[in-house]
Amino acid sequence: MQNRTEDRTEQRLDRLRGRAPRRRHDARTIAALTRNPGCARRAVLDAAGVDKELLARQIGFAAPFGQSPFAIVRGNVFEARVTADECAALLTLLAECLDTDAEAGADEATSSDVIYLDLGASGAGPDAEGPARRLERTEAVLRSEAAARAGAGSRAETRAEPRRTVLLAHPLLRLAVGGQDVYLEPDLLVIRPDGRAHVVEIKSFAVVDGQADGEKVAAAAVQAAVYVLALRRMLGTPAAVSHDVVLVCPKDFSNVPLATRVDVRRQLLALDHQLARLTTVQTLLDALPPEVTFDLAPAADGAPTRPAGELTDALDQLPARYAPDCLSVCELAFRCRQEAAGRTAALGASVREELGGIDTVAEVLDLAGGARTPTESQAEAAAHLMITARMYAEGLSAGQALAPPLAPLPAPAQLQASLSASHPVPASASASVSGGEHG
Amino acid sequence: MTAISSYARALAVATGTAAPTATVRHAHLSARPFVLVPLTLAGEANAPLAAMVGTAWDEATLLVVAQPRNRDLRFAFADQLAQIMLPHVLGFAAATEELTSGPRSLDAPQLIVPNPAGVEFVRLFARSTRFRSTEGEYAVAPNVPVLGRWLTFFAERAEIPGSSLMLAVTDLLGLHWATGQSALEDANLAALLGWIDPPPGLRGAAAARLAEDPRHCPPAGPTTDPGFDTEQLAPAIAAYDTAVAAAAADPAAGSAGVARAVTRLENLLRTQLQPTWDLVWRALDLLDGLPPGASVPARWETDRARYTGFHTYMVEEGLPQARRDGAVTAARRLNRIEQAQAAYDADRAFDDPLVMAQHRVTGEAFSGTVVAVERDRRIPNGRGKGRLVTRPLLTVRTEDPIRLTVGAKVVASSRRRQECVIEAIDIPPEGGGLLITLEARSGMGRSAVPAPGTVAEVGESLCYSAVLADGVRSAPMPDTADTPWTHGGPPEPYEPTEKDTAEAWE
Amino acid sequence: MSAVGEIAGLAGSAGSAGSAGLSPAAQAEAVTLAILDDLRAGRHRGVIVDSPPGAGKSTLVVRTAAVLAASGAPLMIVAQTNEQVDDLVERLSARLADELPAARIGRLGRTGYLPSARLAGLSNVVTASDVDSLGEPEVTISTAAKWAYVREGTWPWAIVDEAYQMRSDTLLAIAARFERALFVGDPGQLDPFSTVTGDRWHGLVWNPMQSAVAVLQRNNPDLPVHRLPVSWRLPRTAQDVVADAFYPFTGFRTGTGFGERGLVVPGPAESPVDDVLDVAATTGWGLLELPARHTMRTDAEAVAAVAQLTRRILERGTLATSGGERTRITPGRIAVGAAHRDQVVAIRAALGGLAATEGDADHPAAGSGSGAGAFGASGAGPGSAGWDGQVVVDTANRLQGREYEITVVLHPLSGRRDATAFHLEAGRLCVLASRHRQACLVVARAGIRELLDAHPTSDPVHLGEPVRFPDGWAANQAMLAHLATSRVQL
Ligand code: SF4
C-alpha cells in the first residue's frame, strides 16, 4: 500500500518533469528548503526535479542570479591554499578552534598524530561506480574511527590508543530527500581525538576583526547543517557528529585562513523538520489536474521548445506563496512577483500586517476610503485602515500648510486630488490597480 | 513598517508614483556634499575597483584600480582618494565659533554614498587603511592612514541616528517617500527613484523593473553586475595584465599599451558609475526641494561639534581607532545611540505632522482643540511648607483613538517647552470623541501667573505626543582602565604596534 | 526526550538524575546549601543561580541576604524594578526582624523618592535617595538604574536579582560597587532588549546588548552555576512540557505530584468555553481553538473568547485544590496575558470592571512570584461571595516574575499569517505558560501549526555569538503539540 502510493507519487513527478533529466538536490538546494517552506509551487517543482532556472528563462522571467568570474576564481584560489599540503595550514587552526579548555595541552604531538585521507576528488562528477565506492569508503572510515575511539574511551586513562586526528578530504555523503537519494560532497571532515566528527566548510568571504556578513554565514551554516544531518543519519549515532561545524574563511583583507566554530543546532532543527514535511507533496500533487506538466520539450541540442504560454498556464495551477525574500532565494521570483502585483504580500509581510492583512491593495484603499462595505471578518481591519487614512491625509495637509515645499512634490496630481477628497482614493485609481494587476 | 508608511505604499501602488511619508526634510543637506560612488571587485574582501567622487554633479573625478588584486594599486587608489577628499574634509575646520564647551566649526563636510552597502564599503576601506604604516617594508603614502581615520569617523557617525555627516541616498529617500514595492526592492537606488520620480510616461512599477535590469541600468554598487564582470570587465583586466607583462619585457614599447589598457578600463567603469552618479545627484536635488525640519539645524550643530572634536583629536593625537570596541566603549556607544534614536524619533514627529500621524494611529499622540483652560490654577507643590506652584489645566477635545492613560507625560508639537501630564480622560456627555484634561507643568515663566502666551487658549488646535526623548537614561560608565572583572577586566592599553601595519595582504 | 531535543542533541528534561531519590524539599535544600557554601568559601567572585519559574528565587535571595547580613559584611541588593525592590524589602524586613533585630535595611530611591505605603510601617527599613543619608545599613537595596548613579563605595557582597533581565551595560555601570556577587535569575524568560540594532558588537564577549549573566559567563567561564531544581509554583501537569520546551538542557521538577493540585469546576458545562475549563481542571492545560482565520492583532472574537473564558472561571465558582485545601478562585488570582499592548487594551475593555486598570499590575496585591506560595500557602483569602480584586491583564514583559492560580493566554501566534522573531521568542511563550499554579488556558485560532511549518528560516548568523536556546520556533512546536491534547474547538 505504502509502496503503491510512493510509486504513484514518483510517476506523477516524472510526468511533471517530462523528458529533462532530474535536477538532483545538492546541499544548497536542500538548504533552500528552509527559506520558503510554505510555497507549494516550489515544493512540487523541487520534488519533481524540474530545472527552475531553465523554466524561468523559457517563460521570459530569467532569474537574476549569477556569479562573477572573479568570485569563482577567488573561491578556488582560497580553497586550494587551505587544502594544500594535506591541509597543513588548517591543522593548528582546527586544533585551536575545536579544543575545549580541558583538552588544550592534553595532546602535545598534534601534527605527528594526524592522518590525512583523500577519498578522491569528484572530478567530472560522480560516475556509475564512483559515488558508491566513495560513499562506502567514507562510511567505513567514519565507522572504524568511531569504533577505535569507543574502544579507547573505555580505557581512557591507560592512553594505550594513539589520540589522533583524522582529516577526511572529499568524502561523499548520502541523504534521503523526499524519497530520493542525494549525494553530498562536503569540503572536509575532521575527526578529533575524542572521536567526534566535525564538518569543515571553506568559504571565501572575509572575516574582518572576527565579523562576517551574517547572511553569508547563515547560508554556510545551513549548508554545513545538511552535511551534519546526512552524517548523523548515515552513522545512526547522532553523538558521533558534532553540531559545531568549522567555518574556514580568509582573515581580514588577506588570504590567510581563519577557522571559526559555528553552532548549527537551530539549522538542524529547521532542516529536520522541513525534510520530514516533504512527504506531504502527494497532497499537493493530488490537487493538480492530471495534464499539468513542465516538460520543456528540449530539442536535439537541448534547447527548450515548449511554448511559454503553456508553461505559464501550468505554473498557474501551482499555488505560490510569494514574499519579497523570494527575490534572493528562488529562480522563479520574477514570475511570482509579477503574479503578486497588486497584492499586499508583494510589499512585504510587515506591510501586509499593517494593512490589516487585507489581500489586495485595491481592497485596502476601498476599505480605507469607505468605498467598500467590509465583510464581517474585515471589520476590524477596515476600522484600522480608515483611521490610518484619516491620519495620513491630515498629516500630509497639515505638513504642507506648515511648510510648503520649496519645489512641488513629485507626487502626481492624481494623488493630491485623491487626498483632498473625502475618500482617500477615487474609484478610478482603484480601478487602475485592478487593471494593472491583470495587464 | 508602520501603518502610515504601509498605507503610503498602498497609495503608491494605486497611483503608480511614490507617496510622501514626510512633509519636511529630516536630514541636513550640505551645499557642497562630497559624493562617493564606489565599486569593488567581486569575491575580494572590499578591494576597490573604481570610484566616482566629487562635490558637484558636473565635476566628477573617476578613480580606477586597473588590477584590484594588486596591493600597491589599491593603496595608490587610497592615496588618490585622500588627495581629493582630505582637502575638502579639512577645509571646514578653520572657520569656527567659540562656545563655552569649546570651538565648533561653522560648517562641516558631508559624505554621501548611494546606499548602505556604500557605507559598509567606507567602513571596511577605512579599516583596511587606518593602521597602515607610512614607513618600512609595506609603506603607504602618508595620506592613506589619515584618510582611513577620517573615513572611520564618518562611518561611526553614520551609525548615530539623526547624524547627517554621512548619508546613504536610498536611506534618505526611503525616509521621505514610500514606493509601491517592498523595502527589499527599495535597496536598488535606480528602482527607488523610478518610483519617486518616474521618467515621463512610465508608472513607478514599470520604471522600477527597467531599473532593475543591469543591462539597462548598472547596479549602484559597490558590487558590480556579474554579467558585466564576465563579458567586459574580466577581458579588460586581462588585457591590462597582458599589457603590463609586455611593458615589463619591453618598457619603451609597452607603456603605451598599458596606458591604452587603463583607458579602456576607465571607459568601461565609467559606464557603470556614471548612471549611479547621476541618480545620486538627482536624488539630492529632489530632497533639496523639501524644506528642512525644524530640528535639523540643531542636529547638524551636533555634527559640526563632533567634526571639530575629531579634527582636534587628529591634530593632537591622531592614533587610529581601535579594531573593535572595548567593554566600556561599547556600553557608552550603545547608550549614545539609544539616546540619539529616542531624540531623533521625537524630533521628527514634532517637526512633521505626517510623521506624527503614525503616533496618532497607534494612540501615542493625539490632536485636538482646546475647549477649556484654567490658566491661573495654583496647587501645593507637594513638598510641604504651604508653597504653591502654577499648574494650569487644559481640556482638549480629540477624536483620535488614544491609548494613553492618566499620568502619561505629553508635549505639544507647537509648544515643545511645556511638559503636560494627563489628569483625566472623559467621554463628553454629548458624545464626539474624548475630553483630555492636561496639567501644564513647565514652560510658563518664573512668576506666579503664567507669562502671556505660554498657556494655550480656548480654540487653539494642538497635537500632543507621548513619544519623548527623555525615556532613555544612560548611566555613567567606569573608565576603561577600571573595566570590572564582570566584563573581562581592564584591557591592555591600546597602542598601535608593528603587527597592525605588517598585516598580511596576500 | 522530545524529538526536537534529540535533533539538537539536548540534554532532555525533567527530574535531574543523581538526586532522584530525594524529596523535592530536600533536593531544593541541598542546592541552597551548596550555593551558600560556594558563597562562604569565596572561591569565586561570582556565583550564578538559574531558577526555573517559581523555584523560590526570592526565597533564596532573602535567605542569602539574611546569612550575609549576619556575617557582618555590608550587602547590596540589585533588583530591576521598583516593585521588585519593594517586594524584597518587605520580605527581608520580616525575616531580619526575627533573626537579626538590630539589622537595618536601606531602601535607596530616585531623587524625590517617596516610600510606598507598604514600606511605611517597617521599623527596620530606612529610605533615602542617596547612600549617605541611609547611615550604614547592613543591607542596601535599590534598582540597577539607581545603583548606576552611586559613584562611590564598595560593598563586599552583592546580590543581583533577575539578572537575566538586566542588560550587560547596566551591570558594567554598577560592577565597581561590589567585590563578589550572587547572580540570580530565570534563563527562560525574556531577554533584555534595545531600541537599536547592535551589529557592531556581535561576537564581542562584552556585547552590551546581551544579558548580565551572558556577559558574566563569557568573560568568566569558570564561575559556578547552580540550578534550583524544584518549581513550587507550577503544577505537576506543567513539568514536562515547560521543561522540555523552555529548559531543555537542565529541566526541573515540580514540588507537587499529579493530583495534588487541580481545579474543581462546579456545575455542568454549558458551552465549549466551559468544556475547555473542565479539560483544564484535570490536565492543567486547555486550548480553546477558534476557527482558522487571519485576523488583526486585536482579533475581536479571540478577545471575546478570552474575556468569556475568564468570566466563566469566576461565574462557575471554580475552586483551586492544593494539598487537600480548596480555595475559591477570585479575580485577583487570575492573570490574562498577551503579546501586544493593543491586545491588552482590547482585553481589558472586554472585561470591563473585572480587569485591573493600567498600573495596578505593578502592585502585587495579587501576590507576586513569592516563595510564600512555595509551601502551599496561597495569598488569596478564603472564598467569599463577592469577588475580591481584579483580573490582571498584561503583556508577557510585565507578567514576568508573577504568579497566579490560573492564567488565560491569548496565543502570540493566534490569527497571524506569519511569525516574526518577536512572536516566536521562546521567552515570551515561556513567561505566558509558566505563571500558573493550577492551570493555563490558551485561546488561539487554528492554523498555528501550519504557520510554524511555513515559517522561513532566514536569520543572519553572527560569528562568535552564542546561539540562544531554546529556539523559539522549536519551543512553539513543542508547546503546541502538548496543547493539542487539551483542545476544545469553538
Ligand atoms: S518565487 Fe515563487 S515558486 Fe519560488 S518560493 Fe517564491 S512563491 Fe514559491
Q: Tell me which CATH architecture of the largest domain in chain C applies here.
A: 3-Layer(aba) Sandwich
What is the name of the CATH topology of the largest domain in chain C? Rossmann fold
Q: Please write the CATH class name of the largest domain in chain C.
A: Alpha Beta
Q: Output mean pLDDT of chain B.
A: 92
Q: What's the main sheet of chain B like?
A: 6 strands, antiparallel, barrel
Query: Using CB atoms under 8 Å apart, which protein chain pair has the greatest interface?
Result: A-B, 78 and 74 residues
Q: How large is the radius of gyration of chain C? A: 22 Å
**What class would the helix/strand composition of chain C place it in?**
alpha/beta
Shape of chain C: globular
Tell me the helix content of chain C. 25-40%
Number of helices of chain C: 17
Number of E-state strands of chain B:
17
Work out the count of structural domains of chain B. Answer: 2
**What general form of chain B does the structure show?**
globular
Bound molecules: iron/sulfur cluster
* Sheet with most strands: strand arrangement of chain B: 10-13-16-15-14-17
End-to-end C-alpha gap of chain C: 32 Å
Strand content of chain B: 15-25%
Strand order within the widest sheet of chain C? 4-3-5-2-6-7-1-8
User: Can you tell me the residue ranges of chain C where pLDDT is under 50 for at least 5 consecutive residues?
Assistant: 1-18, 360-386
Give a structural overview.
The complex is a heterotrimer of chains A (about 450), B (about 500) and C (about 500). Chain A is α/β, with parallel strands linked by helices and about 450 residues long. Among the domains of chain A are: about 70-155 and about 160-275, no CATH class; about 350-395, no CATH class. Chain A contains 17 helices and 8 strands. A 6-stranded mixed β-sheet of chain A has the order 1-2-5-6-7-8. In chain A, helix 7 (about 215-235) packs across helix 8, helix 14 packs across helix 15 and helix 14 (about 360-370) packs antiparallel against helix 17. The longest helix of chain A is centred in the N-terminal third of the chain and has 30 residues, at about 70-100. With about 500 residues, chain B is of the alpha+beta class. Chain B folds into 2 domains: about 5-325, no CATH class; about 350-465, Elongation Factor Tu (Ef-tu), domain 3 (Beta Barrel). Chain B has helices at about 5-15, 70-90, 115-130, 145-155, 170-175, 185, 190-195, 205-210, 225-250, 250-290, 295-315, 325-350, 355-360, 500; strands at about 20, 35-40, 50-55, 60-65, 95-100, 100-105, 110-115, 165-170, 175-180, 365-375, 380, 390, 395-400, 410, 415-425, 435-440, 460-465. In chain B, helix 9 packs antiparallel against helix 10 (about 250-290). Chain C folds into 2 domains: about 5-230, P-loop containing nucleotide triphosphate hydrolases (Rossmann fold), CATH 3.40.50.300; about 235-490, Rossmann fold, CATH 3.40.50. Chain C has helices at about 5-10, 25-40, 55-70, 80-100, 115-120, 145, 170-175, 210-220, 235-245, 270-285, 300-315, 340-350, 395-400, 420-425, 425-430, 450-455, 470-485, and strands at about 45-50, 75-80, 105-110, 125-130, 140-145, 155-160, 180-185, 225, 230, 255, 260-265, 285-290, 320, 325-330, 335-340, 390-395, 405-410, 435-445, 485-490. An 8-stranded parallel β-sheet of chain C has the order 4-3-5-2-6-7-1-8. In chain C, strands 16-15-17-18-12-19 form a 6-stranded parallel β-sheet. In chain C, strands 11-13-14 form a 3-stranded antiparallel β-sheet. In chain C, strand 13 (about 320) and strand 14 (about 325-330) form a beta hairpin. In chain C, helix 7 (about 170-175) packs across helix 8 (about 210-220), helix 9 (about 235-245) runs antiparallel to helix 17 and helix 11 (about 300-315) crosses helix 12 (about 340-350). The complex binds iron/sulfur cluster (SF4). Iron/sulfur cluster binds near residues 36, 39, 330, 333 and 336 of chain A.
